[in-house]
Amino acid sequence: MTRPPTTLDILVRRDADDLHLSLSGRLDAHQVPGFLAAAEPLAARTTLDLGGVTFMDSSGLAALVRLVRTARAAGQDLGIVNVQDGVRLAMEITGLYAVLPIR
C-alpha cells in the first residue's frame, strides 16, 4: 500500500507583480512555517494552487486565513485554485469555503 506524502512541496514562481505557489502534499502544523516563508511577501496578484494538497489541518487553514487577511489589508489580490475534495471538506466544515477567495 502506498502511503500519502508527509511533506509539503512548494513550487514558487514570482515576478514583479505576480506570485504563484503550487503546493503538493500535506499542509499541516509541521509544514506551515515553510509555506508562509515561501508565500511572504505577497505580490500584487498571488495565486495559491492547492491541486496537489492531500491533507490540510487547522494550522493550514489558519495560514490561508492569515495570508488572505494580509493581502486584503494591503489591497492585493489573492486567489485559491484547484481545491481538492478532502481539503474542500475541511474548509466547508469550518465555514471557510464560503469566505476564502476560491476560484
Give the spatial strand order of the biggest sheet. 1-2-3-4
Report the helical percentage. 25-40%
CATH topology: Transcription Regulator spoIIAA
CATH class: Alpha Beta
- The shape, in one word, is globular
Short description:
Residues 48-103 form the STAS domain. It is built from three helices and four strands; from the N terminus they run ββαβαβα.
How is this fold's topology laid out?
Blueprint: E1 8-14, E2 18-27, H1 32-39, E3 45-56, H2 58-73, E4 77-81, H3 85-94
Parallel strand pairs: 2-3, 3-4
Antiparallel strand pairs: 1-2
Describe the fold and architecture.
By secondary structure, the protein is an alpha/beta fold. The protein has one domain (8-94): STAS domain (Transcription Regulator spoIIAA, 2-Layer Sandwich), CATH 3.30.750. Helices cover 33% and strands 33% of the residues. The protein contains 3 helices and 4 strands, in the order ββαβαβα. The chain has helices spanning 32-39, 58-73, 85-94, and strands spanning 8-14, 18-27, 45-56, 77-81. The protein has a 4-stranded mixed sheet with strand order 1-2-3-4. Helix 1 runs parallel beside helix 2 (58-73). The longest helix has 16 residues, at 58-73. InterPro entries: Anti-sigma_ant, MlaB-like_STAS, STAS_dom, STAS_dom_sf. Belongs to the anti-sigma-factor antagonist family.
